[in-house]
Design a protein that fits this description.
mainly alpha
Length: about 150
Amino acid sequence: MRSAMMVRTIGAGLLLLGAAAWGDGPTPSTAPSPGPPSADRHFQEGLEAQKKSDWRRASQAYEAAVKQREAFPEAWNGLGYSLRQQGKYPEAIKAYERALKLRPDYAEALEYLGAAYVKMGKLDDARAVLGRLEPLDKKEAAALRVAIDKVKP
């Protein structure tokens, strides 16, 4: 019994370590439980699609996750990220706002929200997001500042 729990714990840790190597995008959560599709399983499917840059499939999976569990800020963030990658900035912003309503200090969602504003040319909005982000996460704030500074006024 104890060894089975240890194997699951190590397996979950390896999953998270491997997922961290995926690069940019929403941070993975835990592995989905076996059985019928759940919000967690849809979220993991979104991460897998994102890893392959299949943004349409990723957004579909994240949408399925939030339909099953509305209070899932990571899935809302993933949805926003995948929509932003498709150039659907207004929809992405709505998804980031939902993530931030659930978790106001969600640094990753703030950085992505700011990046969407930059893509839309809404630099004042991006700077306002940067102001919220700076006290939370210096690394995410630096990434957003670089994106803002790249835009010619």
